[in-house]
Design a protein that fits this description.
CATH architecture of the largest domain: 3-Layer(aba) Sandwich
Radius of gyration: 19 Å
Order of helices and strands: EHEHEEHEEHEHEHEHEEHEHH
Strand order of the largest sheet: 2-1-3-5-6-4
Largest sheet: 6 strands, mixed
Number of strands: 12
Helix content: 25-40%
Number of domains: 2
Strand content: 15-25%
Number of helices: 10
């Protein structure tokens, strides 16, 4: 049965460029219906030059909440009134909510990543040796939360060493505690000989893996030899929207766990929903809307 849209229906939305691939509307609308909230969640394609105009319009419209996806997570900050600590630390906003005529920015990506790994995949971030590929906004958005879980070590691999070193310095300044953070070039000759020492490898680049060949260094755009990961390790691809069956099967045969970004989307969305509504997210319903297996 279709839900009724009335003048009282509250608007929530996603802004980004592109948004046509997003599964957030299906997930959030299923949650609203289950919770009995008179609201609708839509995805708006917004180009960079229009971000300020759109946010000002949403402010006037008294929108219930906004999610922000690439490439606008940093760009929106200049149009917000306040930032929560996680957004300040990461310089990245993926969730906006109104409060007392103000628009406040937060970042739930790190929460989503940690919850996905710890609870959906039953892998402990605490004590893990972690390799993250990339040092851009996606990596920055999750690493503060990951490091708060006290992993044994973190290695940042990036094509630009300077950018990775800058991220490392930012992390060390904020954490103010002794933790091993190593920076290495995104070079197969450096990474592949030691790829089996990592418990968790996170792809925080926009390169998606969808075929068994993508697990071999000859065919992987990043040059990673994922089939040399140790048994029981986890490869977490922050991307979603590609057919994952082939690469998942290839890694499973090796005894390596695999997840795309849907698990992270689920938990960051659940956190955003709680911020907007004060309600506990119906995770099982949201999982089903995303086409995920129940845990």
């Amino acid at each position: 049965m279709k839900r009724e849209i009335s003048p009282a229906t509250k608007l929530f939305c996603l802004i980004g460029d592109p948004v046509s691939h997003s599964k957030s509307p299906a997930m959030m609308n299923a949650a609203f219906e289950t919770l009995g909230i008179d609201a609708v969640y839509l995805a708006f394609h917004v180009q960079g030059r229009d971000v300020g105009t759109v946010l000002n319009a949403l402010r006037i419209m008294d929108v219930g909440g906004v999610n922000v996806t690439a490439p606008h997570k940093g760009r929106v900050i200049g149009y917000l009134d306040e930032l929560f600590p996680e957004a300040q630390l990461t310089g990245s906003v993926n969730t906006i909510f109104p409060s007392m005529d103000k628009l406040i920015g937060d970042n739930t990506d790190g929460y989503g990543m940690v919850s996905a790994i710890n609870y959906e995949l039953n892998v402990a971030v605490s004590g893990a040796r972690i390799l993250i590929i990339g040092a851009g906004g996606a990596a920055r958005g999750v690493l503060f939360s990951i490091l708060q879980e006290s992993p044994a070590s973190l290695t940042i691999a990036n094509r630009s060493i300077d950018k990775a070193e800058e991220l490392r310095s930012n992390l060390m300044d904020v954490l103010k505690r002794n933790i091993e953070i190593e920076v290495v070039p995104l070079n197969p000759g450096v990474i592949n000989p030691e790829i089996d020492r990592f418990d968790i490898i996170i792809n925080a680049t926009s390169v998606k893996k969808s075929t068994p060949e993508a697990t071999s260094p000859e065919n992987d755009p990043l040059g990673l030899d994922l089939l040399k990961m140790k048994k029981g390790a986890l490869f977490f691809d922050m991307n979603y929207g590609v057919e994952k069956g082939d690469v998942e099967a290839a890694l499973k045969e090796r005894g390596v766990l695999y997840s795309d970004g849907l698990a992270m989307l689920l938990h960051q969305g659940a956190r955003a929903l709680a911020l907007w509504t004060g309600e506990e997210a119906p995770l099982d319903i949201m999982r089903a809307a995303l086409g995920m297996k129940q845990v």
